[in-house]
Amino acid sequence: MLVLVINSGSSSLKYQVRETTTEEVLLSGLVERIGEAEVPDHAAALETVEAHLNRVLGDRAIEAVGHRVVHGGERFTTPVLITHEIVRAIERLAPLAPLHNPAAALGIRALLEKWPKLPQVAVFDTAFHRTLPEHAWRYAVPDDLYKLHGVRRYGFHGTSHDFVTGRAAELLGIERGRFRAVIAHLGNGASVTAIRDGRSIDTSMGYTPLEGLVMGTRSGDLDASIVTQLVIRGEYTAEEMDRILNKDSGLKGLSGDNDMRSVVEAAAEGHDGAELALEVASYRLQKYIGGYHVAVGGAQAIVFTAGIGENSWPFRQRVVDGLGALGVTLDQMSNVERSQEARIISGPDSAIPVLVVPTDEESEIARATEELALAG
Ligand code: ADP
Protein backbone atom coordinates (compact mmCIF):
# COMPACT_ATOMS: atom_id res chain seq x y z
CA MET A 1 0.00 0.00 0.00
CA LEU A 2 1.20 3.51 -0.80
CA VAL A 3 1.19 5.45 2.47
CA LEU A 4 1.95 9.12 3.04
CA VAL A 5 3.55 9.62 6.45
CA ILE A 6 3.22 13.09 7.94
CA ASN A 7 5.01 14.70 10.86
CA SER A 8 3.42 18.09 11.24
CA GLY A 9 5.02 20.80 13.38
CA SER A 10 3.81 24.36 13.95
CA SER A 11 6.13 25.81 11.30
CA SER A 12 7.25 22.73 9.38
CA LEU A 13 5.83 19.60 7.80
CA LYS A 14 7.94 16.50 7.21
CA TYR A 15 6.61 13.85 4.87
CA GLN A 16 7.50 10.53 3.30
CA VAL A 17 5.78 8.19 0.89
CA ARG A 18 6.33 4.50 1.57
CA GLU A 19 5.35 1.36 -0.23
CA THR A 20 4.52 -0.94 2.67
CA THR A 21 4.92 -4.21 0.78
CA THR A 22 8.50 -3.50 -0.23
CA GLU A 23 9.35 -1.08 2.64
CA GLU A 24 10.61 1.23 -0.07
CA VAL A 25 10.73 5.00 0.57
CA LEU A 26 9.54 6.54 -2.70
CA LEU A 27 10.04 10.14 -1.72
CA SER A 28 10.52 12.36 1.29
CA GLY A 29 10.60 16.05 1.94
CA LEU A 30 10.26 18.93 4.33
CA VAL A 31 8.21 22.10 4.01
CA GLU A 32 9.51 24.83 6.28
CA ARG A 33 8.50 28.34 7.31
CA ILE A 34 4.81 27.61 7.51
CA GLY A 35 3.12 30.79 8.69
CA GLU A 36 5.38 33.07 6.65
CA ALA A 37 4.39 34.82 3.43
CA GLU A 38 5.20 32.04 0.96
CA VAL A 39 3.55 29.27 2.94
CA PRO A 40 0.84 30.98 4.98
CA ASP A 41 -0.69 27.83 6.48
CA HIS A 42 -0.72 24.02 6.52
CA ALA A 43 -3.08 23.92 3.54
CA ALA A 44 -0.48 25.83 1.52
CA ALA A 45 2.21 23.42 2.72
CA LEU A 46 0.09 20.56 1.35
CA GLU A 47 0.09 22.16 -2.08
CA THR A 48 3.87 21.80 -2.09
CA VAL A 49 3.59 18.20 -0.93
CA GLU A 50 1.01 17.44 -3.62
CA ALA A 51 3.22 18.89 -6.36
CA HIS A 52 6.09 16.69 -5.17
CA LEU A 53 3.83 13.60 -5.12
CA ASN A 54 2.60 14.30 -8.63
CA ARG A 55 6.13 14.72 -9.95
CA VAL A 56 7.42 11.48 -8.48
CA LEU A 57 4.40 9.19 -8.38
CA GLY A 58 2.80 10.08 -11.70
CA ASP A 59 -0.44 8.08 -11.95
CA ARG A 60 -0.01 6.19 -8.71
CA ALA A 61 -2.21 7.51 -5.93
CA ILE A 62 -1.69 7.62 -2.17
CA GLU A 63 -3.95 5.09 -0.47
CA ALA A 64 -3.73 6.19 3.15
CA VAL A 65 -2.10 8.80 5.38
CA GLY A 66 -0.37 8.19 8.72
CA HIS A 67 0.24 11.07 11.12
CA ARG A 68 2.74 11.17 13.93
CA VAL A 69 1.05 12.70 16.98
CA VAL A 70 3.16 13.39 20.05
CA HIS A 71 0.58 13.14 22.81
CA GLY A 72 -2.22 10.63 23.08
CA GLY A 73 -2.86 11.28 26.79
CA GLU A 74 -4.47 8.41 28.68
CA ARG A 75 -7.05 7.75 25.99
CA PHE A 76 -4.98 6.54 23.06
CA THR A 77 -3.32 3.20 23.65
CA THR A 78 -3.03 2.24 19.96
CA PRO A 79 -3.07 3.95 16.56
CA VAL A 80 -6.58 5.04 15.50
CA LEU A 81 -8.46 5.86 12.32
CA ILE A 82 -9.01 9.62 12.30
CA THR A 83 -12.47 11.15 12.47
CA HIS A 84 -13.43 14.73 13.34
CA GLU A 85 -13.99 13.59 16.91
CA ILE A 86 -10.44 12.20 17.06
CA VAL A 87 -8.99 15.50 15.84
CA ARG A 88 -10.89 17.32 18.57
CA ALA A 89 -9.56 14.84 21.13
CA ILE A 90 -6.00 15.51 19.91
CA GLU A 91 -6.62 19.24 20.28
CA ARG A 92 -8.04 18.78 23.77
CA LEU A 93 -4.71 17.24 24.80
CA ALA A 94 -2.94 20.52 23.94
CA PRO A 95 -2.32 21.45 27.60
CA LEU A 96 -0.09 18.36 27.84
CA ALA A 97 1.81 19.06 24.59
CA PRO A 98 1.31 22.76 23.81
CA LEU A 99 3.90 22.87 21.04
CA HIS A 100 3.09 19.59 19.34
CA ASN A 101 -0.56 18.59 19.45
CA PRO A 102 -2.10 21.76 18.01
CA ALA A 103 0.43 21.56 15.16
CA ALA A 104 -0.43 17.92 14.45
CA ALA A 105 -4.12 18.82 14.45
CA LEU A 106 -3.52 21.59 11.91
CA GLY A 107 -1.83 19.12 9.59
CA ILE A 108 -4.61 16.56 9.99
CA ARG A 109 -7.35 19.14 9.37
CA ALA A 110 -5.62 20.37 6.23
CA LEU A 111 -5.43 16.81 4.91
CA LEU A 112 -9.01 15.98 5.85
CA GLU A 113 -10.10 18.98 3.86
CA LYS A 114 -7.93 18.24 0.85
CA TRP A 115 -8.41 14.48 0.63
CA PRO A 116 -11.59 13.72 2.64
CA LYS A 117 -11.94 10.20 1.21
CA LEU A 118 -8.47 8.96 2.15
CA PRO A 119 -8.24 6.89 5.33
CA GLN A 120 -6.09 8.73 7.84
CA VAL A 121 -4.48 7.27 10.92
CA ALA A 122 -2.96 8.88 14.01
CA VAL A 123 0.03 7.16 15.62
CA PHE A 124 0.87 8.44 19.10
CA ASP A 125 4.34 8.78 20.64
CA THR A 126 2.89 8.03 24.07
CA ALA A 127 0.75 5.00 23.15
CA PHE A 128 3.40 2.29 23.53
CA HIS A 129 3.87 3.31 27.16
CA ARG A 130 0.23 2.82 28.11
CA THR A 131 1.18 -0.62 29.42
CA LEU A 132 3.20 0.90 32.29
CA PRO A 133 2.00 -0.41 35.64
CA GLU A 134 0.64 2.24 38.00
CA HIS A 135 3.67 2.09 40.30
CA ALA A 136 5.79 3.19 37.34
CA TRP A 137 3.55 5.96 36.02
CA ARG A 138 2.55 7.52 39.33
CA TYR A 139 4.49 10.36 40.88
CA ALA A 140 4.42 10.46 44.68
CA VAL A 141 2.40 13.68 44.82
CA PRO A 142 -1.14 14.43 46.05
CA ASP A 143 -3.83 12.70 44.03
CA ASP A 144 -5.35 16.00 42.90
CA LEU A 145 -2.35 16.70 40.71
CA TYR A 146 -3.15 13.55 38.79
CA LYS A 147 -6.94 13.80 38.90
CA LEU A 148 -7.23 17.50 38.14
CA HIS A 149 -4.13 18.13 36.05
CA GLY A 150 -3.18 14.80 34.49
CA VAL A 151 0.20 14.79 36.27
CA ARG A 152 1.64 11.32 35.65
CA ARG A 153 4.36 9.66 33.59
CA TYR A 154 3.31 9.40 29.93
CA GLY A 155 6.61 8.59 28.21
CA PHE A 156 7.54 9.43 24.61
CA HIS A 157 9.43 8.01 21.59
CA GLY A 158 6.99 5.10 21.85
CA THR A 159 6.85 4.39 18.13
CA SER A 160 10.63 4.03 18.06
CA HIS A 161 10.84 1.92 21.22
CA ASP A 162 8.11 -0.34 19.84
CA PHE A 163 9.77 -0.77 16.45
CA VAL A 164 13.23 -1.37 17.93
CA THR A 165 11.89 -3.88 20.45
CA GLY A 166 10.43 -5.96 17.62
CA ARG A 167 13.61 -5.82 15.55
CA ALA A 168 15.86 -6.68 18.51
CA ALA A 169 13.76 -9.70 19.51
CA GLU A 170 13.80 -10.85 15.89
CA LEU A 171 17.58 -10.46 15.63
CA LEU A 172 18.11 -12.55 18.77
CA GLY A 173 15.50 -15.13 17.75
CA ILE A 174 13.43 -14.54 20.89
CA GLU A 175 9.63 -14.53 20.72
CA ARG A 176 8.58 -10.91 21.26
CA GLY A 177 5.97 -11.80 23.87
CA ARG A 178 8.72 -13.20 26.08
CA PHE A 179 11.36 -10.58 25.36
CA ARG A 180 12.98 -8.58 28.17
CA ALA A 181 15.23 -5.66 27.23
CA VAL A 182 16.46 -2.16 27.91
CA ILE A 183 16.13 0.11 24.87
CA ALA A 184 18.11 3.37 24.74
CA HIS A 185 16.79 5.81 22.12
CA LEU A 186 19.54 8.45 22.00
CA GLY A 187 18.84 11.31 19.60
CA ASN A 188 18.58 15.03 20.31
CA GLY A 189 15.86 13.93 22.67
CA ALA A 190 16.74 10.73 24.50
CA SER A 191 14.84 8.17 26.50
CA VAL A 192 15.35 4.66 27.78
CA THR A 193 12.59 2.07 28.13
CA ALA A 194 12.27 -1.12 30.16
CA ILE A 195 10.70 -3.92 28.10
CA ARG A 196 9.11 -6.95 29.71
CA ASP A 197 7.16 -9.53 27.70
CA GLY A 198 7.69 -7.28 24.68
CA ARG A 199 5.87 -4.35 26.31
CA SER A 200 6.92 -1.10 27.93
CA ILE A 201 6.87 -1.32 31.74
CA ASP A 202 8.88 1.80 32.52
CA THR A 203 10.43 4.70 30.63
CA SER A 204 12.62 7.64 31.53
CA MET A 205 10.62 10.51 30.03
CA GLY A 206 7.72 11.56 32.19
CA TYR A 207 4.93 14.11 32.25
CA THR A 208 6.91 15.88 29.52
CA PRO A 209 10.01 14.86 27.52
CA LEU A 210 12.23 16.74 30.01
CA GLU A 211 12.70 13.92 32.50
CA GLY A 212 15.33 11.21 32.43
CA LEU A 213 18.53 11.14 30.42
CA VAL A 214 20.90 14.00 29.69
CA MET A 215 19.88 15.17 26.19
CA GLY A 216 21.19 17.61 23.59
CA THR A 217 19.66 20.62 25.30
CA ARG A 218 17.48 19.12 28.07
CA SER A 219 18.74 18.51 31.58
CA GLY A 220 16.89 15.27 32.23
CA ASP A 221 16.40 14.34 35.91
CA LEU A 222 16.86 17.03 38.52
CA ASP A 223 15.55 18.08 41.92
CA ALA A 224 12.27 19.96 41.35
CA SER A 225 13.29 22.37 44.13
CA ILE A 226 15.90 23.82 41.81
CA VAL A 227 13.01 25.26 39.83
CA THR A 228 10.80 26.29 42.71
CA GLN A 229 13.65 27.83 44.75
CA LEU A 230 15.06 29.90 41.92
CA VAL A 231 11.58 31.11 40.97
CA ILE A 232 10.58 31.85 44.59
CA ARG A 233 13.80 33.82 45.10
CA GLY A 234 13.02 35.80 41.97
CA GLU A 235 16.23 34.81 40.20
CA TYR A 236 14.33 33.58 37.16
CA THR A 237 10.74 33.52 35.99
CA ALA A 238 9.00 30.18 35.46
CA GLU A 239 9.20 30.78 31.70
CA GLU A 240 12.95 31.36 31.91
CA MET A 241 13.44 28.16 33.89
CA ASP A 242 11.39 26.28 31.32
CA ARG A 243 13.64 27.59 28.56
CA ILE A 244 16.87 26.96 30.50
CA LEU A 245 15.98 23.34 31.28
CA ASN A 246 14.65 22.50 27.82
CA LYS A 247 16.88 24.55 25.52
CA ASP A 248 20.09 25.49 27.34
CA SER A 249 20.89 22.44 29.42
CA GLY A 250 22.05 18.86 28.78
CA LEU A 251 25.16 18.47 26.62
CA LYS A 252 24.84 22.12 25.65
CA GLY A 253 24.66 23.31 29.23
CA LEU A 254 27.77 21.42 30.28
CA SER A 255 29.88 21.69 27.12
CA GLY A 256 28.48 24.60 25.13
CA ASP A 257 27.45 22.30 22.26
CA ASN A 258 24.35 20.15 21.84
CA ASP A 259 25.65 17.95 19.01
CA MET A 260 27.21 14.67 20.15
CA ARG A 261 29.74 14.63 17.30
CA SER A 262 31.18 17.99 18.36
CA VAL A 263 31.12 17.06 22.04
CA VAL A 264 33.05 13.83 21.40
CA GLU A 265 35.60 15.71 19.25
CA ALA A 266 36.02 18.49 21.80
CA ALA A 267 36.51 15.97 24.61
CA ALA A 268 39.20 14.21 22.56
CA GLU A 269 40.95 17.56 22.20
CA GLY A 270 40.95 18.04 25.95
CA HIS A 271 37.93 20.32 26.44
CA ASP A 272 36.97 19.85 30.12
CA GLY A 273 33.31 20.81 29.72
CA ALA A 274 32.86 18.33 26.88
CA GLU A 275 34.52 15.57 28.88
CA LEU A 276 32.26 16.34 31.83
CA ALA A 277 29.17 16.32 29.60
CA LEU A 278 30.05 12.84 28.33
CA GLU A 279 30.72 11.60 31.85
CA VAL A 280 27.44 12.93 33.22
CA ALA A 281 25.41 11.69 30.24
CA SER A 282 26.91 8.18 30.19
CA TYR A 283 26.70 7.82 33.98
CA ARG A 284 23.00 8.77 33.91
CA LEU A 285 22.30 6.17 31.25
CA GLN A 286 24.28 3.50 33.14
CA LYS A 287 22.10 4.10 36.21
CA TYR A 288 18.95 3.67 34.14
CA ILE A 289 20.23 0.51 32.48
CA GLY A 290 21.09 -1.00 35.87
CA GLY A 291 17.70 -0.05 37.29
CA TYR A 292 15.72 -1.29 34.32
CA HIS A 293 17.72 -4.54 34.21
CA VAL A 294 16.26 -5.17 37.66
CA ALA A 295 12.78 -3.91 36.66
CA VAL A 296 12.45 -6.29 33.72
CA GLY A 297 13.69 -9.27 35.73
CA GLY A 298 17.02 -9.57 33.91
CA ALA A 299 17.38 -8.06 30.47
CA GLN A 300 18.10 -10.34 27.49
CA ALA A 301 19.41 -7.36 25.53
CA ILE A 302 20.65 -3.80 25.89
CA VAL A 303 19.82 -1.93 22.70
CA PHE A 304 21.14 1.37 21.32
CA THR A 305 19.18 3.31 18.70
CA ALA A 306 18.63 6.78 17.09
CA GLY A 307 21.27 9.30 15.97
CA ILE A 308 23.72 8.88 18.84
CA GLY A 309 22.87 5.28 19.70
CA GLU A 310 23.34 4.17 16.09
CA ASN A 311 26.33 6.29 15.16
CA SER A 312 28.43 7.31 18.13
CA TRP A 313 30.68 4.38 18.98
CA PRO A 314 32.68 6.43 21.51
CA PHE A 315 29.51 7.18 23.47
CA ARG A 316 28.36 3.53 23.38
CA GLN A 317 31.79 2.53 24.60
CA ARG A 318 31.65 4.92 27.56
CA VAL A 319 28.24 3.62 28.56
CA VAL A 320 29.12 -0.06 28.28
CA ASP A 321 32.48 0.46 30.05
CA GLY A 322 30.48 1.31 33.16
CA LEU A 323 28.34 -1.84 33.04
CA GLY A 324 31.05 -4.22 34.25
CA ALA A 325 28.99 -5.19 37.30
CA LEU A 326 26.38 -6.69 34.94
CA GLY A 327 29.06 -8.76 33.19
CA VAL A 328 28.57 -6.82 29.96
CA THR A 329 31.47 -6.51 27.51
CA LEU A 330 31.90 -4.98 24.05
CA ASP A 331 33.45 -6.40 20.93
CA GLN A 332 35.62 -3.44 19.90
CA MET A 333 35.58 -4.27 16.20
CA SER A 334 31.79 -4.59 16.00
CA ASN A 335 31.31 -1.45 18.07
CA VAL A 336 33.38 0.78 15.78
CA GLU A 337 32.08 -0.81 12.57
CA ARG A 338 30.16 1.63 10.37
CA SER A 339 26.98 -0.11 9.36
CA GLN A 340 23.30 0.68 8.92
CA GLU A 341 22.35 -2.90 9.79
CA ALA A 342 20.98 -4.12 13.10
CA ARG A 343 23.77 -6.03 14.82
CA ILE A 344 25.28 -7.37 18.02
CA ILE A 345 28.25 -5.40 19.35
CA SER A 346 28.93 -7.23 22.63
CA GLY A 347 31.78 -9.63 23.19
CA PRO A 348 31.22 -13.41 23.05
CA ASP A 349 31.61 -13.54 26.86
CA SER A 350 29.10 -10.75 27.55
CA ALA A 351 26.42 -11.74 30.10
CA ILE A 352 23.87 -9.67 28.16
CA PRO A 353 23.98 -9.09 24.39
CA VAL A 354 24.39 -5.43 23.42
CA LEU A 355 22.76 -4.45 20.12
CA VAL A 356 22.65 -1.53 17.73
CA VAL A 357 19.28 -1.41 15.96
CA PRO A 358 18.50 1.46 13.56
CA THR A 359 15.12 2.93 14.34
CA ASP A 360 12.54 3.74 11.66
CA GLU A 361 9.53 5.51 13.07
CA GLU A 362 8.09 6.22 9.61
CA SER A 363 8.10 2.55 8.73
CA GLU A 364 6.21 1.76 11.93
CA ILE A 365 3.69 4.56 11.22
CA ALA A 366 3.21 3.30 7.65
CA ARG A 367 2.71 -0.27 8.87
CA ALA A 368 0.12 0.76 11.48
CA THR A 369 -1.62 2.98 8.93
CA GLU A 370 -1.92 0.16 6.41
CA GLU A 371 -3.29 -2.19 9.03
CA LEU A 372 -6.04 0.21 10.12
CA ALA A 373 -6.83 1.36 6.60
CA LEU A 374 -7.38 -2.24 5.50
CA ALA A 375 -9.44 -3.07 8.59
CA GLY A 376 -11.46 0.17 8.47
P1 ADP B 1 16.26 13.68 16.62
O1 ADP B 1 15.93 13.46 18.06
O2 ADP B 1 16.27 15.11 16.23
O3 ADP B 1 15.54 12.76 15.66
P2 ADP B 1 18.61 12.14 15.86
O4 ADP B 1 18.10 10.80 16.20
O5 ADP B 1 18.84 12.49 14.43
O6 ADP B 1 17.80 13.29 16.57
O7 ADP B 1 20.01 12.30 16.65
C1 ADP B 1 20.75 13.49 16.64
C2 ADP B 1 22.05 13.24 17.41
O8 ADP B 1 22.76 12.17 16.78
C3 ADP B 1 23.00 14.43 17.47
O9 ADP B 1 23.53 14.60 18.79
C4 ADP B 1 24.12 14.01 16.53
O10 ADP B 1 25.35 14.53 16.93
C5 ADP B 1 24.12 12.52 16.69
N1 ADP B 1 24.73 11.90 15.51
C6 ADP B 1 24.25 11.81 14.26
N2 ADP B 1 25.14 11.22 13.43
C7 ADP B 1 26.23 10.94 14.18
C8 ADP B 1 27.50 10.35 13.92
N3 ADP B 1 27.82 9.91 12.70
N4 ADP B 1 28.35 10.21 14.97
C9 ADP B 1 28.03 10.65 16.18
N5 ADP B 1 26.85 11.23 16.50
C10 ADP B 1 25.97 11.37 15.52
What does this entry show, briefly?
By secondary structure, the chain is α/β, with parallel strands linked by helices. Helices cover 42% and strands 17% of the residues. The chain contains 15 helices and 12 strands.
Salient structural properties:
Nucleotidyltransferase, domain 5; 42% helix; 376 residues; six-stranded mixed sheet; 12 strands
Account of the protein in words:
- The chain has 376 residues and is α/β, with parallel strands linked by helices.
- It folds into two domains: 2-124, ATPase, nucleotide binding domain (Nucleotidyltransferase, domain 5); 173-222 and 248-356, ATPase, nucleotide binding domain (Nucleotidyltransferase, domain 5, 2-Layer Sandwich).
- The protein has 15 helices and twelve strands.
- The chain has helices spanning 42-57, 84-92, 101-114, 134-137, 143-149, 158-172, 224-232, 238-247, 250-255, 260-268, 272-295, 306-311, 313-321, 332-336, 361-375, and strands at 2-8, 13-19, 24-31, 64-69, 80-81, 120-124, 181-186, 190-196, 199-203, 301-305, 343-344, 354-356.
- The strands form two sheets. It has a six-stranded mixed β-sheet with strand order 3-2-1-4-6-5, with helices on both faces.
- A hairpin with a 3-residue loop joins β7 and β8 (190-196).
- α11 (272-295) packs across α13.
- The radius of gyration is 21 Å and the shape is globular.
- The two termini are 14 Å apart.
- 45% of the residues are buried.
- The site of adenosine-5'-diphosphate has 12 residues, from α10 and α12.
